[in-house]
Amino acid sequence: MQEKIAFFIAISKKWGINVSCNKSPPLRMPAINGRNKGIGFQLPRHRENSDRTVRFGGAETKGGHTMRVKEETEIVPISPDAPFYFHCGPEVPCFNACCGDLNQYLSPYDVLRLKKNLGVSSPVFLDTCTVRHEGPRSGLPVVSLRPKNTPEMACPFVTDQGCRVYADRPASCRMYPIMRMAARDRSTGTIREEYMLMREPHCHGFSSGRPITVNAWMADQGLIPYNAANDDFLRVLGVKRRDCPGILPQPLSDRIFTALYDSDRFAETIAGCRYDNDEAYLRDAYEYVIGCLQQHEK
Length: 298
What we know:
Helix 5 runs parallel beside helix 8. Helices cover 31% and strands 21% of the residues. The protein has a 6-stranded mixed β-sheet with strand order 1-13-14-6-4-5. Strands 8-10-9 form a 3-stranded antiparallel β-sheet. Strands 2-3 form a two-stranded antiparallel ribbon. It is an alpha+beta fold.
C-alpha cells in the first residue's frame, strides 16, 4: 500500500519546504494552497495585495496570496533524465534577488548543517536564526529562517558577495529551480519521486549555463544526503497522519520539536549520548518521534 504523502523540497528559495499529509492518488500536478485533495502545495505568505498568476502546465490560478509583483511563474513537469539550462552566480543580473522576501522552512537536516557551519549550538541557532511554527497541514512543529529586519526581508546569511553558508545551504536553495515531490510506500518503504521545473519571471539564470539533467543537478548541488534525510522523515509524517492527526498537545509538540531540531539538547537530555554523525542522530530522533506519536495514540 502506498503511503500517499508528499514532501516538497525547494519549491523556491522563498517557498522552501512544504509538507502535505493527505491521502492522494498517485503523484500529480500540485494544487494552489493544497485545495486539490491530492498533493498539497502552499504559496508563500508575502506582503500585501497581489494577483500574481501561477501557471501549472498551462492551467492558471489567480489570487488569494500576497505577492510583490504581478507576474507569471511557470511550473512544468520534467523527467530526471531531461536536460535544462540554468546558471546562477554574481555575473547573473538577478544574483541574490531570490534571497529576499523570505519564507523558508527548514528540515531537521538543514538545521544540523547550518548550526555546524556557524559553529553554534542548536539552542543558539534556533533562538537567533529561526522562527517556530505549527505545520498547518502536518500538525508537527516546524521552523523557518528568521529574515533580516529590513524591508527586503532578506535571508540572514546573504551578503553582497552571495551566501556566507553556501557549503551548508538548505536543500531548498540547492534544488532551485527544480522542485521535487516524493511519496513513500508504507509496506515496502520505496520512495517514488517526481520533478518539476519552475521558471520565475525575475530569474535570468535560464539565459545561460550548460545543459544539465535533473539527476546530474542533484549530484552537482550535493542533494543526495539531503534527499535521503528528508525521505526518511516521510516515516514520521506517515505515523503522524495515521495515528495522531490534528494539533498536538503542547508538551508533546515541545518534545517532538526538541528531537527534530534541537539536536544538542536531545542528545543531552533525552538520548543521553553524543552522536558522531548526523545519520545516527536523525535515525534516533525520528524513531523517538514515532514512538511519542504512537504512545500518545494509546
